Amino acid sequence: MILILRKKEWEILKILWKDRNQYTSSQEMAMLIGASDKTIRKYTNFLKSSLKGHGAEIQAKQGNGYQLVITQPVIFAEFRERETKKHADYKIATNVDDNFDRKKYIINKLFLESVILKRNEIEQDLHISSTVVFKLIADIRSLLAEYDISVVNTKKGLEIRGSELKQRQFLIDYFFSRKFNSSFMINLQNTVFDSSINLGEITVIVLDEIRNADLYVSDFVIENSIVHIALMVQRLRNGNTLMRHLLDDLDKQGKNYQVAKNIYDRLVRSFPDIRIPEVEAEYISIHLISRNNKKLSIKNTEVDKEIKTAINNFSELVNGRIQNDSILYKGLVDHFNQLLIRLQNQIEISNPVLRDVEKYYSEELAITKKSFQSIADILDYPINDNEWSYVTLHMIAAMERYSNSQKIRVLIMCATGVGSAQVMKNRLEREFGNALSISKVISYYELDKKVLNEVDLVISSINVDGLYLPVPVINVSVIINDSDIRNIKKFVNIKTDNKRKLSNSDHKYENIQNEYVFYNCFSEDRFIVTHKENINKEKMLSHMIALLEDNPQTNFNEMFLREIKIRETYGPIIFNNILAIPHPTKPLTKDEKIVVAIIKKGLYWDSENPNIRFIFLLSPSITNNKNMRQVSNSLAKIIENKSLEDELLNINNYNDFKNIMLKILSL
C-alpha cells in the first residue's frame, strides 16, 4: 500500500482542509496534533511538495500561518478521496500509531520474520522520522539487554545477535505470556480446557519447531496456531475426530507441512492419553500458512471488504470500538481462509467451546451471526453454530483487548516496595480492578525513567512534590483511606473518559482535543459562582489562589498576589470592563491550572472597572502550558459575543460552565 502522504502530512492536510477559508498557524496545528512547532513546519514543507500535481497548494503568510488553496477542485477531490481510503486501510492493516505497536512491528520483523531491516525502510513502512526510529531501536536494545541479545548494524541492515535459547525465551515473554494471561484466556482455560492443557507448553512446542525450521510467520499466526491446538486437544478428548484429509493437493514435502508434522509428533508425546490422528497435522499446517499464500487465500476482495464492514457493524452494536483492531482483522482473514477450505472439502468440526459460548456469550454469538451473515451469503455455504462460535471467540478476544487498553497503567511506590506496597496493591485491585492495571510495585530508590515510560499514573505513599515526574502522581496513605479513594476515582473518571473519547473516529477529533484541554486546566474544585454583593477584590483573589492545590511555599498566597500586581503594571488584565484575567509574571505551580469565579452581582476592581462579572485566574505551569495557551486565546471570544457573555452569567453549576467553555474552545 503506497501512501503519498506521511501520517503527519495527512493530519496537517485534514486541519488545513477544515479551515481552508482562513489561515492556521503552526502553533495551532502543533497543539492539535501533539507535536512541536518545528515538526509542524517541517512536515508542512513536505506537504507542499506532496501536493504538487494534485490540484492544491499551500500558501504561507508571515504572522498568519498557512492556508490550503484548491487550484483544481476535481483533481484534488480525487486525490483526497484516495488518501482518505488509503490511510483508513493502512490504520486497520498495521495499527502502528503508537510506540508500543511500532516496537512490536520491528521486533516481529527481526525475530519472527527474520528480516534484515534498514532504518530508511522502517521510516517508510511506519511513516516516522529518523529520530523516532533511532529512539525505537534504542528502546528495543534496552529491552533485549536483559536477555543478552543485541541489535547490531551491519552493511545489510539491522540484525539480531544472541543465543537461540535466549531469543525463544524473549519471544515467549514478549509476545505470548501477556496474551495468555488475559482474563479471557484464563477464563477459557478454566471453563473449557482441563488442567492438563497448558498453553505455555504448547507455545514452547510451536515456537521451537518454527524456529528450528526457519519458518517465518507473524506473531498472530503463531498465536492462532496455539489456540487452535489447545481447542483440537479438547475436541479430541470429547471424542470428535477429523476422519478425512483436508486437501488432496497439500504439499507434504513443503516446509509448512514438515513443521506441522514435527509439532504433531511432539503433541503425540505430550498428550499420550489421547489418540491424535495424523490428519490433524494437515489442519495445523493450514494454520501456519501465511494469509498472503495465494493458493489458500480468499481471492474475493468483496469478502475482505465485508470482513471490515462486519467488524464495524459488530463494534457499533456492542459499543466496543474494536473497528481498528489489526489483530482481529488479520485473525478473521486467516479464519475465513481456513473456514472456506473446510467448507469446500465438506469438513465439519465440532467446537469444544460452543456450549460455553452459548451459555456465557449468547448475546455476542447472536451479534456475530447478524454482523457476519453477509460473508456467509457471499461464500455461498451454510455455516453452523460450531463455526459461528469460533468467529465469536475472535470478537470476544478483541473486546477484551479494547477493555484492557482502556485500563490505566499504574505504578505503586512506597518506601520499601515490599509489605506495605502489597497492602496498597490489594486494596487498589479490590476497589479499581476494572479500571486500573497494576504494572509494577517498587520502592522509591527503584524509580527510573524506563519504569515511568510504561505507566499512566504513579500512586505513592511517599510525598514526591519536590520531584518532577512526567506522569501524574497521587499521594496516598499506606492503608488508602476514603479520601484517597475519592482522589483516585476522580482521576480514573477523567482519564477513562478521555481514553474512550480518543478512540472515536476522526470527525470528533477537535471535540476530543477541546475536552482534553478543558480537563487539564479546569476543575470543579476551582470553580466559584456567587450571588453576593460588595465582594472585596483582595479577599476574592486570595480565596481563589488558595484553591490552587500544590502550594510550594508557606507565603504562596502573598507571593501570587504580588506577582499579579506586578503583571498589572505591564499591561491590561481587564477586558471590556467585565472580564478579569489575573496571572503572575512567572509560573509558580507545577501544573497549569485556572480558577474561575462568576460573580452575578459584580465586583469592584477599580474606579474604571467597577462591575467585573468574570474572573479567570491563570496559574501557568513551570514546565508546559500548551493547554492554557489555547484557553487564554479563546477567552477573548466572551467579550466579542454578547450571547456567550449572557450564557456564562446565567449558569449556576459546573456542568453548564463546562458545556459553554467547550463551545467557546471550538469557535
TrEMBL record:
It holds the Pfam family PTS_EIIA_2. Keywords: Activator, Repeat, Transcription, Transcription regulation, Transferase. Residues 520-664 form the PTS EIIA type-2 domain. PANTHER family: CRYPTIC BETA-GLUCOSIDE BGL OPERON ANTITERMINATOR, TRANSCRIPTIONAL REGULATOR MTLR. Residues 191-297, 298-405 form the PRD domain. GO terms for biological process: phosphoenolpyruvate-dependent sugar phosphotransferase system; regulation of DNA-templated transcription. Coiled coil: none annotated. GO terms for molecular function: protein-N(PI)-phosphohistidine-sugar phosphotransferase activity. This is BglG family transcription antiterminator. Residues 408-500 form the PTS EIIB type-2 domain. It comes from Aerococcus mictus. InterPro entries: BglG_antiterminators, Mga_HTH, PRD, PRD_sf, PTrfase/Anion_transptr, PTS_EIIA_type-2_dom, PTS_EIIB-like_sf, PTS_EIIB_2.
